[in-house]
Amino acid sequence: MPRSNQKESASLPPLPHIFGNGTADRILITLAANRAMNIGEIARAIGVKPSTAFTAIERLRYAGLVSKGLHTTNGAYVELNRGFAAHRQLYALLLALGRTWPAPNIQHEAMPASPARKVSVSAALQALRSPKLTVLAYVAKKRSVGLGRICINLQLSHSLASVIVNTWQRSGIVQSRYSGKSRILALDPAFPAYRQLRRFLRSIFEKPQ
After folding, report:
1. Does this model's pTM top 0.90?
2. Residues 96, 196: contact at Cβ < 8 Å?
3. The domain 3-117 is classified under which CATH number: 1.10.10.10, 3.20.10.10, 2.40.50.200, 3.30.230.80?
Protein backbone atom coordinates (compact mmCIF):
# COMPACT_ATOMS: atom_id res chain seq x y z
CA MET A 1 0.00 0.00 0.00
CA PRO A 2 1.30 3.52 -0.82
CA ARG A 3 2.70 5.40 2.19
CA SER A 4 0.05 8.13 1.98
CA ASN A 5 -2.70 5.49 2.17
CA GLN A 6 -0.97 3.83 5.14
CA LYS A 7 -0.92 7.13 7.01
CA GLU A 8 -4.63 7.71 6.31
CA SER A 9 -5.68 4.16 7.18
CA ALA A 10 -3.92 4.28 10.55
CA SER A 11 -6.75 6.41 12.00
CA LEU A 12 -9.60 4.71 10.12
CA PRO A 13 -11.65 1.68 11.15
CA PRO A 14 -10.95 -1.39 8.98
CA LEU A 15 -12.73 -1.41 5.63
CA PRO A 16 -15.52 -4.01 5.81
CA HIS A 17 -15.29 -6.78 3.22
CA ILE A 18 -18.75 -6.45 1.71
CA PHE A 19 -17.90 -7.91 -1.70
CA GLY A 20 -15.77 -10.84 -0.64
CA ASN A 21 -12.40 -9.41 0.40
CA GLY A 22 -10.71 -6.08 0.99
CA THR A 23 -9.12 -6.03 -2.47
CA ALA A 24 -12.48 -6.27 -4.21
CA ASP A 25 -14.00 -3.53 -2.05
CA ARG A 26 -11.05 -1.17 -2.59
CA ILE A 27 -11.16 -1.77 -6.35
CA LEU A 28 -14.86 -0.92 -6.51
CA ILE A 29 -14.44 2.21 -4.37
CA THR A 30 -11.50 3.30 -6.53
CA LEU A 31 -13.47 2.78 -9.75
CA ALA A 32 -16.40 4.77 -8.37
CA ALA A 33 -14.04 7.66 -7.62
CA ASN A 34 -12.09 7.52 -10.88
CA ARG A 35 -14.39 5.88 -13.43
CA ALA A 36 -12.47 3.87 -16.04
CA MET A 37 -8.92 2.72 -15.15
CA ASN A 38 -6.47 0.15 -16.45
CA ILE A 39 -5.32 -2.69 -14.23
CA GLY A 40 -1.90 -1.18 -13.57
CA GLU A 41 -3.47 2.06 -12.35
CA ILE A 42 -5.84 0.17 -10.09
CA ALA A 43 -3.04 -1.96 -8.63
CA ARG A 44 -0.91 1.11 -7.86
CA ALA A 45 -3.87 2.99 -6.39
CA ILE A 46 -4.72 0.27 -3.87
CA GLY A 47 -1.17 -0.93 -3.29
CA VAL A 48 -1.31 -4.51 -4.58
CA LYS A 49 0.43 -6.50 -7.33
CA PRO A 50 -1.18 -6.30 -10.80
CA SER A 51 -1.79 -10.06 -10.65
CA THR A 52 -3.74 -9.64 -7.40
CA ALA A 53 -5.79 -6.83 -8.88
CA PHE A 54 -6.42 -8.85 -12.03
CA THR A 55 -7.73 -11.86 -10.08
CA ALA A 56 -10.15 -9.69 -8.07
CA ILE A 57 -11.27 -7.79 -11.18
CA GLU A 58 -12.02 -11.00 -13.06
CA ARG A 59 -14.17 -12.19 -10.17
CA LEU A 60 -16.07 -8.89 -10.16
CA ARG A 61 -16.40 -8.97 -13.95
CA TYR A 62 -17.75 -12.53 -13.85
CA ALA A 63 -20.34 -11.34 -11.32
CA GLY A 64 -21.28 -8.42 -13.58
CA LEU A 65 -20.27 -5.61 -11.22
CA VAL A 66 -17.53 -4.31 -13.54
CA SER A 67 -17.02 -4.35 -17.29
CA LYS A 68 -13.98 -4.18 -19.54
CA GLY A 69 -13.28 -1.98 -22.53
CA LEU A 70 -10.41 -1.51 -24.95
CA HIS A 71 -8.65 1.82 -25.60
CA THR A 72 -6.69 2.30 -28.81
CA THR A 73 -3.56 3.53 -27.02
CA ASN A 74 -3.98 2.55 -23.35
CA GLY A 75 -5.17 -1.00 -23.90
CA ALA A 76 -7.75 -2.76 -21.70
CA TYR A 77 -9.49 -0.80 -18.97
CA VAL A 78 -12.13 -1.50 -16.32
CA GLU A 79 -15.12 0.43 -14.99
CA LEU A 80 -18.32 -0.20 -13.08
CA ASN A 81 -20.80 -2.08 -15.24
CA ARG A 82 -23.65 0.28 -16.16
CA GLY A 83 -25.73 -2.73 -17.18
CA PHE A 84 -25.80 -4.13 -13.63
CA ALA A 85 -29.42 -3.95 -12.46
CA ALA A 86 -28.52 -2.16 -9.22
CA HIS A 87 -25.77 0.02 -10.72
CA ARG A 88 -27.23 3.24 -9.31
CA GLN A 89 -27.50 1.84 -5.78
CA LEU A 90 -24.04 0.29 -5.99
CA TYR A 91 -22.47 3.54 -7.19
CA ALA A 92 -24.11 5.50 -4.35
CA LEU A 93 -22.88 2.93 -1.83
CA LEU A 94 -19.30 3.05 -3.13
CA LEU A 95 -19.23 6.86 -3.01
CA ALA A 96 -20.53 6.74 0.57
CA LEU A 97 -17.88 4.18 1.54
CA GLY A 98 -15.26 6.37 -0.15
CA ARG A 99 -16.07 9.23 2.18
CA THR A 100 -14.82 7.14 5.12
CA TRP A 101 -12.29 5.00 3.24
CA PRO A 102 -11.18 7.41 0.47
CA ALA A 103 -9.62 6.26 -2.77
CA PRO A 104 -6.82 8.25 -4.45
CA ASN A 105 -7.80 10.43 -7.38
CA ILE A 106 -5.89 9.30 -10.46
CA GLN A 107 -5.16 11.74 -13.29
CA HIS A 108 -5.41 9.91 -16.60
CA GLU A 109 -6.80 10.19 -20.09
CA ALA A 110 -10.58 9.90 -20.32
CA MET A 111 -11.73 6.51 -21.59
CA PRO A 112 -14.79 5.81 -23.75
CA ALA A 113 -17.66 3.99 -22.04
CA SER A 114 -17.18 0.24 -22.06
CA PRO A 115 -19.98 -2.02 -23.37
CA ALA A 116 -22.64 -2.44 -20.68
CA ARG A 117 -23.56 -6.04 -19.90
CA LYS A 118 -27.05 -6.60 -18.49
CA VAL A 119 -26.81 -8.54 -15.25
CA SER A 120 -29.57 -9.07 -12.70
CA VAL A 121 -28.86 -8.57 -9.02
CA SER A 122 -29.67 -12.19 -8.22
CA ALA A 123 -27.28 -13.41 -10.93
CA ALA A 124 -24.49 -11.22 -9.53
CA LEU A 125 -25.09 -12.50 -6.00
CA GLN A 126 -25.03 -16.09 -7.22
CA ALA A 127 -21.79 -15.49 -9.15
CA LEU A 128 -20.10 -13.92 -6.12
CA ARG A 129 -20.94 -17.08 -4.14
CA SER A 130 -20.91 -15.14 -0.90
CA PRO A 131 -23.03 -16.49 1.97
CA LYS A 132 -21.90 -13.42 3.93
CA LEU A 133 -23.51 -11.04 1.44
CA THR A 134 -26.64 -13.20 1.23
CA VAL A 135 -27.07 -13.06 5.01
CA LEU A 136 -26.49 -9.31 5.05
CA ALA A 137 -29.06 -8.78 2.28
CA TYR A 138 -31.60 -10.90 4.17
CA VAL A 139 -31.06 -8.86 7.35
CA ALA A 140 -31.58 -5.65 5.36
CA LYS A 141 -34.73 -7.02 3.76
CA LYS A 142 -36.31 -7.96 7.08
CA ARG A 143 -35.03 -4.87 8.95
CA SER A 144 -34.97 -6.98 12.13
CA VAL A 145 -34.72 -10.78 12.08
CA GLY A 146 -33.81 -13.63 14.39
CA LEU A 147 -30.71 -15.75 13.83
CA GLY A 148 -32.85 -18.88 13.81
CA ARG A 149 -35.01 -17.50 11.00
CA ILE A 150 -31.86 -16.77 8.97
CA CYS A 151 -30.72 -20.38 9.39
CA ILE A 152 -34.08 -21.77 8.29
CA ASN A 153 -34.79 -19.49 5.33
CA LEU A 154 -31.24 -19.43 3.95
CA GLN A 155 -30.59 -23.10 4.80
CA LEU A 156 -27.46 -22.39 6.79
CA SER A 157 -26.15 -24.22 9.82
CA HIS A 158 -26.37 -22.35 13.10
CA SER A 159 -22.58 -22.36 13.44
CA LEU A 160 -21.99 -20.89 9.97
CA ALA A 161 -24.71 -18.27 10.38
CA SER A 162 -23.24 -17.28 13.77
CA VAL A 163 -19.75 -16.89 12.30
CA ILE A 164 -21.12 -14.70 9.48
CA VAL A 165 -23.20 -12.52 11.79
CA ASN A 166 -20.29 -12.11 14.21
CA THR A 167 -18.08 -11.00 11.31
CA TRP A 168 -20.59 -8.34 10.25
CA GLN A 169 -21.01 -7.20 13.83
CA ARG A 170 -17.24 -6.78 14.28
CA SER A 171 -17.24 -4.76 11.05
CA GLY A 172 -19.82 -2.37 12.51
CA ILE A 173 -22.44 -3.22 9.88
CA VAL A 174 -24.79 -5.35 11.99
CA GLN A 175 -25.98 -4.97 15.55
CA SER A 176 -27.64 -7.64 17.67
CA ARG A 177 -29.72 -7.93 20.79
CA TYR A 178 -31.39 -10.75 22.66
CA SER A 179 -35.12 -11.25 23.09
CA GLY A 180 -35.32 -14.11 25.53
CA LYS A 181 -33.05 -16.76 24.04
CA SER A 182 -33.39 -15.43 20.49
CA ARG A 183 -30.63 -13.33 18.94
CA ILE A 184 -32.16 -10.51 16.85
CA LEU A 185 -30.13 -8.89 14.07
CA ALA A 186 -30.45 -5.57 12.25
CA LEU A 187 -28.25 -3.26 10.23
CA ASP A 188 -26.42 -0.82 12.50
CA PRO A 189 -27.54 2.79 11.80
CA ALA A 190 -24.13 3.96 13.08
CA PHE A 191 -22.35 2.42 10.09
CA PRO A 192 -20.96 5.30 7.96
CA ALA A 193 -22.76 4.21 4.75
CA TYR A 194 -25.85 2.79 6.47
CA ARG A 195 -28.54 4.30 4.22
CA GLN A 196 -26.74 3.55 0.97
CA LEU A 197 -25.89 0.02 2.09
CA ARG A 198 -29.49 -0.66 3.09
CA ARG A 199 -30.78 0.56 -0.31
CA PHE A 200 -28.26 -1.57 -2.19
CA LEU A 201 -28.92 -4.70 -0.14
CA ARG A 202 -32.69 -4.35 -0.41
CA SER A 203 -32.36 -4.04 -4.20
CA ILE A 204 -31.17 -7.66 -4.20
CA PHE A 205 -34.75 -8.71 -3.43
CA GLU A 206 -36.59 -5.82 -5.06
CA LYS A 207 -35.14 -6.00 -8.59
CA PRO A 208 -36.79 -8.30 -11.15
CA GLN A 209 -35.22 -11.78 -11.01
Report:
1. no
2. yes
3. 1.10.10.10
